Amino acid sequence: MPQQLPTISLPATFKVQAVTLYYIFRKCINKENKAMLNTSIEPEEWALPLYLKMDEYFHKSGECGEWFDASTNSKVRYLSATFLKAQKALLEDEPREMIGINKASFLPILVYSGFAEKFAFLRRWLEDESITELFTITTHINGKKEFTLSVNEEEFDRNIKAGLPINPLITTPLAPPRPKAVVELRVDLPIKPVCFFGRADMLYKLAQFFSNPHPRGKTLLLSGVGGMGKTSVMQEFLHDERCQHFFNRIVCMVIDHNLPFAFISSTARALNIYDRIMLMPNEETQLRGIVSEMSRLGGENLFVIDNVNETDIHDLREMRYYFDQTGWRFLITSRTIPDGFLFEEVTELDLKDAKLLFTYHFRPDKVDKNDQRRTIQNLNSIINDAEFNSNLEKLLLHIVSHTLLTELLAKYSLKRRFTVNQIYQSLLEKDYIHPDFSSEVDPGVHGMGKKILSPLRLHTYILGLFDTDYLFKKTGDSSTDSENEMRAIMLLFFSMLPSTDIPINDLVTLFGIERSDQVDFEIRLDELRQMGWLQSKYLWGERPDQMDLRYKMHMLVQKVVDEKLSDPLIKGTPLVDNIAGILGKHIADPERFHAYVDSIFRWYEKRIG
Questions:
Q1: What is the rounded CA–CA span in Å between residue 518 and residue 38?
Q2: Per-domain residue ranges for the chain?
Q3: At CB < 8 A and 24+ separation, what contacts does 173-182 make?
Q4: β-strands 219-223, 342-345: how paired?
Q5: Which of 77, 241, 400, 492 has the fewest CB neighbours in a 10 Å radius?
């Protein structure tokens, strides 16, 4: 008797998450071959045999519709293509990706899997966002990835088919989870980036490097040109469970210059040996003391140094000797790669992720701050518009998906109410004015040439996004003129300060803001952030339960301010006066303010020699 397909309430075409689609295929494949359990299965190994088994199972039933009307090759290709879509999503750590399904073609697969009657129930348990702990994607040492349930799979299948609830807390696990590292120390750990798309391969490489029991080295540089997202990658990695579960201790520091002093000071504070270390007679003795203390600490430990720039490279080469003696692992972000250092280069985003980044800032009304998954779905609903997608793709290809420029262009377009095509046309006009904007090719470390965005073109594009003329035009309205002058001074001050995250309380002190004016000051800061001049984030404060709002001006934007604002030497005087007054008083953390002073002095040295 031919097997009849059941009547299931599904539309003719619909979408299902990759994790569910993969699970259905997994059951079909494993029905005949229990050994085929991981995503390394190649379709040619199973697609034709599976089709033949299904063909025999259904015995060419007239109820199967177009599935059996199609040719064998067509059906085998459908099996292969559909499975590969689901597999690709899992390999890219996107198990929630929605994949289009044709009911007539999919139904025989669903029936053969044994879950046809309980398909809705299966989807509920695999796709419900509240129980994502039910499944994991495990990466093996050879790079292969395997889909596993965190509960006993046979029990899971039985309960699904019986319509019973699944409780991961009371079911038998397939295997004991990898023991988590005992968290003993977390110092100055930045919070997880609010907006982060893609880079799964980069996070995987970092996890592989730092968890390798026999590493080629213990220090790794995250390198890349300015504005590419090195710091964001570092911050995302620090919150990745592969990092959090591996390291007992994580200490982070951001520097502006003077790497040895910053390392000594930050480490001494983190390990509660500051007073003892600072009483030592010289830098060499202090470094030996720090190394001795760090090397005594067992377990897996990570030290993160953000923002090593060109002026620190000589110090970095010399400090490497001390880093190696500590037994710790080091992750360092830097635009420059000294000889002999292992590194991973942070390059431009994939086009798909760059589209998400642009749309995130271009359509903030579509952002759900409490649900990343829903945010991505909302953004993709915008991107899927054919005209929007076409124009956005042209724009991103033109700017080579440069991360910071993508964000700035989106904010600029939102503020000016430009369409994507209008902003693209404005860049083409700049190209016409500057015929020296030839396409550049970066030979790369291994000679693999690729198109890059030249520093001149990048600077010119960013320069055109920021209008400062209105700040100096007198309107006749004293209130407006005063407000514009305050904004200009704030921009100048930020260009003189380190390009690091500065606590808002420090900014209030540095800018000499009276308590009665603090609300207006904070409003101006947020307005400058919305315009793209500043970036903001929350970081842990001095107390473990306290988070501070911090602002910074990116180095690339600081160059714009340098070029745009007139008479900077005169206008910078109030900041110097404020600093002098601060240093004349007793302050809780003088070293932090010394770093601000050093940055200001270096700013003046560049201009007056």
A1: 58
A2: 13-162, 185-345, 351-465, 469-608
A3: 174/148, 174/149, 174/150, 177/150, 178/245, 180/244, 180/245, 181/244, 181/245, 181/246, 181/247, 181/248, 181/299, 181/300, 182/248, 182/299
A4: parallel
A5: 241
CA dihedral sign, ordered 194, 199, 204, 207: negative
Give the integer Cα–Cα distance in Å for 140 and 260.
38
- Give 220's strand partners: 331, 342
Which amino acid makes up residue 569?
L
Q: Give the mean pLDDT of 65-82.
A: 68
Backbone phi, psi, residue 329, to 5°? -100, 145
Average pLDDT over residues 201-228: 84
- Whole-structure pTM value: 0.64
120 burial level (CB within 10 Å; 0-12, 13-18, 19+): exposed
Who contacts 21 (Cβ-Cβ below 8 Å, separation ≥6)? Answer: 82, 83, 85, 86, 99, 101
Chain-centroid distance of CA 443 in Å reads 26
Are β-strands 329-334 and 301-308 bridged in parallel, bridged antiparallel, or unpaired? parallel
Domain 185-345 CATH assignment equals 3.40.50.300? yes
As a whole number of angstroms, the distance between CA 392 and CA 351 comes to 10
d(CA 309, CA 337): 10
In 165-258, which residue ranges form alpha helices assigned H by DSSP? 200-211, 230-239, 241-244
How confident is the model over 464-491, as pLDDT tens digits? 888 777 777 888 888 888 888 888 888 8
Q: Which of 385, 326, 328 is nearest to 359 (CA)?
A: 385
Q: Answer for the pair 386, 375: CB distance below 8 angstroms, yes or no.
A: no
The predicted pLDDT at position 35 comes to 40
For the stretch 362-365, contacts whose Cβ atoms lie closer than 8 Å and that sit 24 or more positions apart, written own/partner, are: 362/410, 362/411, 362/413, 362/414, 362/420, 363/414, 364/414
Mean pLDDT of the chain: 79
Output the CA torsion 572→405→337→497 (10° steps): 20
| Both structure tokens of 1 | 């008797």
Asked if 579 contacts 600 with a C-beta cutoff of 8 angstroms, the reply is: yes
Token readout for 471 is: 């700040």
Segment 401-425 mean pLDDT: 91
What are the start-end ranges of the H helices in 17-101? 18-32, 43-58, 66-69, 72-91
426 to each of 461, 464, 465, how far by Cα in Å?
Answer: 9, 9, 10
Residues 282-297 have pLDDT tens digits of 999 999 999 999 999 9
Tell me the per-residue pLDDT of 201-214, one tens digit each, with 9 for 90 and over. 888 888 888 887 77
CA dihedral 522, 524, 530, 535 (to 10 degrees): -60
Q: Which residue has the tokens 């923002």?
A: 307
Residues 6+ apart with CB under 8 A from 294: 267, 271, 301, 326, 327, 328
Question: Is the confidence at residue 137, as pLDDT, over 80?
Answer: no
Q: Which fold has domain 469-608?
A: Arc Repressor Mutant, subunit A (1.10.10)
